Amino acid sequence: xxxxxxxxxxxxxxxxxxxxxxxxxxxxxxxxxxxxxxxxxxxxxxxxxxxxxxxxxxxxxxxxxxxxxxxxxxxxxxxxxxxxxxxxxxxxxxxxxxxxxxxxxxxxxxxxxxxxxxxxxxxxxxxxxxxxxxxxxxxxxxxxxxxxxxxxxxxxxxxxxxxxxxxxxxxxxxxxxxxxxxxxxxxxxxxxxxxxxxxxxxxxxxxxxxxxxxxxxxxxxxxxxxxxxxxxxxxxxxxxxxxxxxxxxxxxxxxxxxxxxx
Length: 262
Hints:
The chain starts with 9 loop residues before the first strand and ends in a 9-residue tail after the last helix. The chain has 11 helices and 7 strands. The protein folds into 3 domains: 10-128, Ribonuclease H-like superfamily/Ribonuclease H (Nucleotidyltransferase, domain 5, 2-Layer Sandwich); 137-187, no CATH class; 201-253, no CATH class. With 262 residues, it is of the alpha/beta class. The chain is globular. Strand 2 and strand 3 (41-47) form a beta hairpin. The strands form 2 sheets. A 5-stranded mixed beta sheet has the order 3-2-1-4-5. Strands 6-7 form a two-stranded antiparallel sheet. The mean pLDDT is 91.
């Protein structure tokens, strides 16, 4: 039984989606456990058609394909049912504050429902984990090197400690990749069709396209011809420097990075 006093029911939930952006991506699976103040637990799970293609790299993580969900209801079909299940409840999940809750809010907003997450209490299990088991450099020095981190937050001491921790990690975990190329891919798997690290610009059918917002799927080359001010907005906007530099090179020099090899 959950030894947390509840003023209202607490919904512990998890989402599988088409990607990692709450604004751009869509929910495919939503599992929720409603814990009542008296300890009773009520469970629901919805498998949903996201109405957009599920990328292969996402399917590789959760195993859900377009074929599996093609006959499933959409979020809009189930929105009222899901909204009612969450009605009057506080929220819990693992990394829910950064992903699951915003993702659910966006889905409800698309169908005209105000989820009002800010009016609910949040219990993010990942935040508890990080609060009770710190994951900063000082904690890493203590865990891997068995000593206190003297001079923490001084750049030189932090750089020295980071290198020592890396050496200790390589010794402790012999299964880790042995080259920087392999380690980079292991820590942040790359989509070969993404032109930037976060996939804001993506190659599709030989064209570099926008992979976010209302222009998602549109060719940068065509936008340069028809809506150059949109590209200038990206250059001036609050985007990763990598994205801004790629678009700036197109706007100012007419150049795009080379397409990935097939």
